[in-house]
Amino acid sequence: MTRFSPRAAQPLVRIADIAYLRFGRRDLERATRYFRDFGLTVVARSADTVHFRGVMPQHHCLIVERAPHDGFLALGLRAASADDLATLAAAHGAEVLENPGPGGGHLVRLTDPSGFPVEVVHGLADLPPLPHRRPRVWNFPGDKRRVNAPQPAIPEPAEVFRLGHVVMQRQEFARNANWYVETFGLIASDVEVLPRSHEPVLAFLRCDRGADPADHHTVVIAAGPRDHYDHAAFETLDLDAVALGGEYLLRRGWVQNWGVGRHILGSQVFDYHFDPAGFAVEHYADGDVLDADYPTRYHVTGKESIYQWGPEMPRHFIDARPTPALIAAILRGLRDRADFSLKRLAAIKKAFDVPPRPWAGKTIRKPKAG
Ligand SMILES: [Fe+2]
Questions:
Q1: How many Å apart are CA 205 and CA 216, to the nearest integer?
Q2: How far is the CA of 365 from the centre of ligand 1 (A)?
């Protein structure tokens, strides 16, 4: 079985950051309404493609294309230099292409070990940042900084600043996680292992920017029953942006997934939502950043490693219902893939069947005075 290595001594390149996601959607108009309500801004639009940006200067961070099926079409990563594009192209027998879409620059198209498209870009245009509200000023005991100035309610979308990370499930965990580490210089910040065997089953991977701190995770690879998109997360300003942004989506009739809470690994304040095609997208704020020296830490996997506070994690959040499509994917994996087993799947399911916080989610009964 392939062993997972949390960092590569000599990676092919060290990418700078995540760049964008490319989604295909049957109903492009509905998807466009959703992502505007989610807090993104349309920066370019054609009959069949919409590019969205955040507050930060990056030209775009989400591309939604009209497609025959709803799906996750490609992950975009940002190269640190044009030379890195040439290095990637040479090593993978690919070509450095001019970006045919808005924003300019160049890109290389690769596929990860599961056959999923990864586009590495360099030279996308920067735009002036969008205006945004200032961070809230909080009053603390003995330190009242806000006098004669109530906190405003903000009935508007969350201001999304940027794309932060993507989480992808893979049948072949180690083969895929190693590929992202060795190809893009990613470093495992935290690794989750199975309770008895201590076999790694999830890696939070960050960019190696040396002394310059990077998000706790940019790409997450999780072992699972099929190769698929789990969720993507967009950074907002603060706790109120996450919570008020969620309120706005509810008011507009969209569907919440899980939140508001705070993660443990990465520390983010989070709120998950479903886009109209049922794909999970996350607003987050106040995530950890780590420099390249910070060591990898290991944890036993399970729901208790996911959040420190928040509503009880709903059953659908880690969705493993045995649909015909899921069973077919599992059978294909068992036939074709050396690094995939039912034993590991059963161990992951068992670890996640344990309720993380037995006191949460109970029906409220008001205590009676005696
Ligand atoms: Fe996330």
A1: 7
A2: 33
